[in-house]
Structure formats: structure tokens, C-alpha cells
Amino acid sequence: MPRPPILVGMSETPVKQQNTAAFYGQAVASFAVAMAATAIGIARLNADAWVRAFLGIAVLYLVTSAFTLAKVIRDRQEAGQLVSRVDQARLEKLLAEHDPFEKL
């Protein structure tokens, strides 16, 4: 019974990039401080209520847009890494099967 070809250099486990808990905590704390400072600044602003409401809505829109942009950039980067990994696996398979001493 023939054995399946061995693919040299291929890993069965996907590459996972994990952030540390400290980095995650710092990012969450930084976001919370920025949002709180902005909310306090808008609330204490010496302006009419409609101006403060407009600035509050603008900040919320900016935050949701920033999250969406970050997600789109991350998704595009992950898709590029997946294509790159598939291409690398194909190349490694070809190199593993290639015999330079075989007659053409």
C-alpha cells in the first residue's frame, strides 16, 4: 500500500498571534480613560445642550468608525496571511516531490 507523500516543513497547527494580558488590559484601560475624559469634557463644556449632544454623537460615530476600520484592516491582513500560507505549502510540496536527478 503506497504511503501519502510527506510534506516537508508544513505545520498542522495554525499560526496564532496572541497578545499578552497586560497589553490587552492596557488597551482597554486606555480606551476607557479616553472615552471618560472626552465625555467629561463634553459634559463640562460651556455650550448649549444641543452642541454638547452633537459632539457626543460625533464622538460615538468616530469610535464606531474606528472599530470598523480596525476590523477591516485586520481581516485584510489575515486573508493575506492565509493566501501566503497556502502558496508556501504548495511550494514546499513541489520542492519535496522534486527530484533534481530525474531525467526529463
Automatic annotation (TrEMBL):
<keyword id="KW-0472">Membrane</keyword>
<keyword id="KW-0812">Transmembrane</keyword>
<dbReference type="Pfam" id="PF05360">
    <property type="entry name" value="YiaAB"/>
</dbReference>
<feature type="transmembrane region" description="Helical">
    <location>
        <begin position="49"/>
        <end position="70"/>
    </location>
</feature>
<keyword id="KW-1133">Transmembrane helix</keyword>
<protein>
    <submittedName>
        <fullName>YiaA/YiaB family inner membrane protein</fullName>
    </submittedName>
</protein>
<feature type="domain" description="YiaAB two helix">
    <location>
        <begin position="23"/>
        <end position="75"/>
    </location>
</feature>
<dbReference type="InterPro" id="IPR008024">
    <property type="entry name" value="YiaAB"/>
</dbReference>
<dbReference type="InterPro" id="IPR038972">
    <property type="entry name" value="YiaA-like"/>
</dbReference>
<feature type="transmembrane region" description="Helical">
    <location>
        <begin position="21"/>
        <end position="43"/>
    </location>
</feature>
